[in-house]
Amino acid sequence: MAPSVEIQSKYQIQNTHEKSQDAPVQQSVGKPTGHENTPEILDPVKINVAGSLPSWLGGVLYRTATWHTNIHSLICTHSIRVRFPGPGKFNIPLGDNSMYHIQHPFDGLSLVHRFEFDGSSNTVTYNSRYTAKGVEKRIIERDNTLLFFGPDPCKTVFDKISSVFHHITGMGKIRDRQDNDPSSEIINVAVTPNYPIPRGERFEGLGSQGLVVKTDANMVQVLDEVTLEPKKIFTYTDFEPDIIGQLSAAHHQEDPATGETVNFVMEMGAMVQFHVFSVSPSGVTTKFEPIYQNLVDPDEKRSALKPAYVHSFSMTEKYIVVPNYPYWFSYGGLSTLWHGSIYESFFWDGTKPTLFHVLDRETKKHVATFQADAYFAFHTVGAWDEEDIDGDDVIVFDVCAYESADIIGASFGYGKKTGDGEAASTENGRKSRRGSAAGLENGRASRRGSAAGLENGRTSRRGSTVGMENGRWSRRGSAAGIKLAKMDEEKLSFLVAPPPTPRHPTFQDNMDDDEERPPVRPSEVRRYRLEGVNKVAYAQADESGAYTKYKRPHADYTVVAEDVELPRMDPRRTCKPYRYVYGVCDSEYGDSYANASSAGLITGLIKADTEAGPSASLKWDKPGCSCSEPIFIPDPESDVEDHGVILSIVNVKGEGTRKDSCFMLVLDAKDMSEIAKADIGEYNAATFHGSFRDAAGRNVAIN
């Protein structure tokens, strides 16, 4: 088992106030809530393996996680001391007796795990590293340009005014900060080995490929493949200057036949555009035609796109499908600068369709747009091409779908221990609509309002469209076109409230305060079919108005599996039909993962059969155990789809004298039986995604 460790932060904070003679050496500030810390283990250690690993299992598994900051601030000139595991949870006491609370698990400071498997000797070697220590420094130094996914309850209206000013006037300093400290950003979602690295003087010594961590922003962090030390931060714009934008998909696509890496960058502003691009194994970057309109409706105003939150997308041998859910950033993304929060800038409109934008991989053109009923998803599964009876193209893709974006609110509980201190502020197993100090109810902004400039649960309408000129952003996201560059903070004091974030009523919004909220349903694997792609493309390109039969296509779906999230499949089935999908699922021993906002998270593992249906599903589910994304590693000596193993980190809740713990679980993918496990440590490790490369360094199962 990996040892518990105590870490001394390299960063120090200086308190200018004189030390009180009566002050204690260390002061307890505020009340920690929510999430617990996970230690880093810098030196590789062999961890105990019970059972037998397959002899063919050799290689390295990388996993991303959050290290759950808990910074104990000492009085006056004492250093900032960080203990792992510590008693606090996502709480950063500062030197002025205030407490900085990180609200959302996606915002925990980054930690990357590395497991090296050697089946021939039945050993697993483990090390890990914090990769966002520069963010810790920025928090301690009160950097108000930090942008989080979840809300920041510490920001007053005037803090937000200051934040907008510094975001706008300090944009030119971001590259310098990232070059000086490659740990200065929170990049913690998907880790990928052998990822292409941009060329040029800034990247000398990094090679053409490397280990990277990706997120939903246009930022990528390069790590050392063994020590996991951060080496560089780059953007997709570094591949090609015209690939501009603020957001991207955390999950790229890779073509197993060509070796191409494909992703997009979303440019927010007056004209929202998705810039899709590919990078070849030789480093050649190819741009696709930007996606900037809904081809279903040629009217200029109605066809304009809104900036949606898109975490992943689909790709076949012929086509790329970029979804556009009706879960949008308000005011072209401008509201994120005001709130300092991605979540508070979203709004959901279930009356609008989900759009599927189709790009032809051969012509690089945006050829068609399909519409579907409103839904939301984090993760896609498989995708492939078919032909109909007329010989026309059909795109088939699977996605873990939710009926609405309410799952975003429920995600506040990801990684929490069950039964921790927040249970006191829950009603009926859900967070009280009255009880959150952050102005949140059920993962939403409180309908009763908060101190952060809210009126009746909405952002005050007295504000100004801060940082906009003629209602639009500068195209390249700089201070150009924004009449604030020469203004100081004092002159911005007229900005008393942000522009309103539109909100559309949902079923839960219309309920009385004392009514029990209906739970969010777990995701279902939907199989969408985009029929007659060439006919649709021809009809939508026809400007005469004569060919209208296929101009407004609606995509239908069938449900092929239920209760599957964080999906993985046999990577050899990429761009091909597949049968089995592995994921996390609800546990019979805890509340649904879709409703864990206050009670914590307990999940099992599921193997779903998309041909035989839900009744054929197999599960691994144990009391007190919460499983992470299951990664399927195929047996290299077999072509059978479910011949291989499943790797998953499992957190175990401590009870009585038994401490929290976690272990690496190894299952036979065929029948989901346990064949081995390796103890990691006496702590919980909330991880997101992982990738596996073999002992020769080749990618096997990446994310």
Automatic annotation (TrEMBL):
A GO term, aspect molecular function: metal ion binding
InterPro entries noted in UniProt: Carotenoid_Oase (IPR004294)
UniProt superkingdom: Eukaryota
Reported cofactor(s): Fe(2+)
Alphabetical GO biological process terms: carotene catabolic process
Biased composition (Polar residues): 1-15
Cofactor binding summary note: Binds 1 Fe(2+) ion per subunit.
Region (Disordered): 1-40, 417-473, 495-521
Positions annotated to bind Fe cation: H251, H311, H379, H689
Keywords, alphabetical: Iron, Metal-binding, Oxidoreductase
Annotated family: Belongs to the carotenoid oxygenase family.
Name of the protein in its database record: Carotenoid oxygenase
